[in-house]
């Protein structure tokens, strides 16, 4: 029986070992389930990250397009500014020519005109002189009428009736 006891003892040890192995297997299965859950969660995160990366790439492309548009606008603005500067340069040149013309020709002509005006004013009669001339005209007109009447009367008297 000693052999039998030994066999039972060994069988008991094997069963105990088997239970420990089964317990360990259960633990390992639980850990594997945790690892698989974590792996699934990691895969979800990876998918989310890929979506975010795609969104970021799309946003980056949009930003590049906007940057190109802004650069084009800036170039147009710079061209417009150059055109405006050229126009201003032409306007300044024209204004300089106009100022020189005013200074040299128009002012000279104004001075000549003022001199002529002064000469005319010197030759023109004063208000008093004009009033006197009007009185003279009225007097002469009256005299002419009177003389015309006398001439008419004389011609009437000369004519044979």
Summary keywords:
mainly alpha
Describe the 3D structure.
It is a single chain. With 161 residues, the protein is mainly alpha-helical. The protein is 96% helix and 0% strand. The protein has two helices and no strands. The longest helix has 122 residues, at 2-123.
The amount of helix comes to over 70%
Strand content bin? under 5%
Output the radius of gyration: 63 Å
The CA-CA distance between the termini, in Å, is 210 Å
Sheet/helix structural class: mainly alpha
Which helices and strands appear, and what pairs or packs with what?
Layout: H1 2-123, H2 127-158
Please summarize what this structure is:
The chain has 161 residues and is mainly alpha-helical.
């Amino acid at each position: 029986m000693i052999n039998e006891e030994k066999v039972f003892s060994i069988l008991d040890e094997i069963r105990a070992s088997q239970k420990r192995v089964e317990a360990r297997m259960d633990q390992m299965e639980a850990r594997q389930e945790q690892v698989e859950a974590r792996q699934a969660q990691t895969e979800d995160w990876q998918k989310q990250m890929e979506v975010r990366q795609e969104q970021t790439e799309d946003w980056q492309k949009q930003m590049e397009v906007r940057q190109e548009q802004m650069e084009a606008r800036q170039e147009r603005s710079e061209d417009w500014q150059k055109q405006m500067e050229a126009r201003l340069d032409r306007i300044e040149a024209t204004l300089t020519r106009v100022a020189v013309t005013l200074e040299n020709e128009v002012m000279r002509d104004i001075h000549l005109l003022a001199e002529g005006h002064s000469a005319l004013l010197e030759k023109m009669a004063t208000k008093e002189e004009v009033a006197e001339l009007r009185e003279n005209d009225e007097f002469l007109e009256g005299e002419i009428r009177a003389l015309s009447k006398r001439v008419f009367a004389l011609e009437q008297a000369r004519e044979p009736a």
